[in-house]
Amino acid sequence: MESIQQFNDSIVDELKQAYDEKFRPFEESFLYKDFPYATPPDDAFFRAKPMILLIGQYSSGKSTFVKYLIDKDYPGIRIGPEPTTDKFVAVMYGEENAIIPGNALVIDDRKRFKPLMKFGGNFLNRFQAAQVNSTVLKGITIIDTPGILSDSNNSAGYDYEGVIEWFAQQSDRIFLFVDAHKLELSGTFQKIIEMIRKYDDKLRIVLNKTDLVTEQEMIRIFGALMWFLGQSLEMKEVIQIFVGSFWGKPFFDEKRRKLYEHEEFRIYEDLSNLPQESLLRKMNALVQRTRQVSMHACLIWYGMFLLFLHTDWIFSFFKYSMFKDNIRRTSILRFIFDKQIKKIYLRKLHKIRAKIEKQYDFTRDESPDLRQMKQALMTINLNRRKTFNKKLFAAKDVFINEDLPAIIDRYHFLKLIILIKIFLKIYKINRINNGKFPKMIFESNNDGTPFGFAKGE
Known about the structure:
CATH architecture of the largest domain: 3-Layer(aba) Sandwich
Oligomer: single chain
Number of domains: 2
Domain Dynamin-type G: 46-280
Strand order of the largest sheet: 3-4-2-5-1-6-7-8
Keywords: Membrane, Transmembrane, Transmembrane helix
Transmembrane segments: 299-318
GO molecular function: GTP binding
GO biological process, one term: endocytosis
């Protein structure tokens, strides 16, 4: 495990160094960070642990699941049949148990929560971190959320759905909890599911508290859940569903022990892949960012071209040839006509975007939000942009065409070497044990398994 962590850290260091040296200067030259849709990757982005988001109705077992994973209570946890968790809680590692208020979290550059400042003070008062000295949390961060109340307003004075969507976008895994005893799949719960369906590659469903229902009831509940997910998510691929009672206590129905133990194993197996998935997601996010920044740069470059074109026309109109060079140096005339020229540019922005997308094969997802871009351009002085610099463009091309592919290839190569070392270590241990694997807890057994589980079906 230590070698895998070292491997991940080395890839992250290489990725961050290449970005800072070759691509960030290109971004800054086109004022990308001055636009509201731009969130520059900081050190917290590269160093962040995989994040797990827990969503579900109230009393569906989210907080209990956190306790089940880390094998202890976290500071401020409240568990009960009524709505108990009324805050967003980031459960993370700390040497000593402590609670950190949301207002302190968002100004900490070492954490990844700074963008949450945009949701305002009402949200920050309902956001906190719970630090726990747990080995599990050395590798992950868990986000426990307030339970969703059906057909009611969860916002409490802030954009609840916007907060959920931000966490869903940033998370590496999303667990959607459904209580087998109250299958109320409507109202606000359905809106949340429809909102996060674009992250279905990270989504997992947990059908919780099933050990107290009969087998016939479980079949009906499972069928109703699948029908609802098919309608709400418009699933193109099968989403993983975990069935069980994840609370760390003895099972009520011993006949289903094998099923529940196997489901526990599936969850741990799924979570064990998160470090590698998180690293791949960061690399993929940087690849997408290069496309988005390039599209932004094309739009800004066209605006600068239009600005200079109209300025030159105005100079030639007044025929002040001697005065022309002085004005060009001081940019006085550009300042006078800047607003009018921007209005011409903004009116044409949709057509300009369509032309650039067609010419350079950009997709609409890679295009910036034009409404936000127009608002920002009315206040941003484009004359602050640095002049054309061939070195910046060359460094950008090296980062996109050489550095990123080389880092991705190195990632796959080193991952293969580590997997081979792990296999050889297991093989060596098993040879010492006369070539036999120790008996597994999830060994197939036909006795007492419901639904024909582990019978080769």
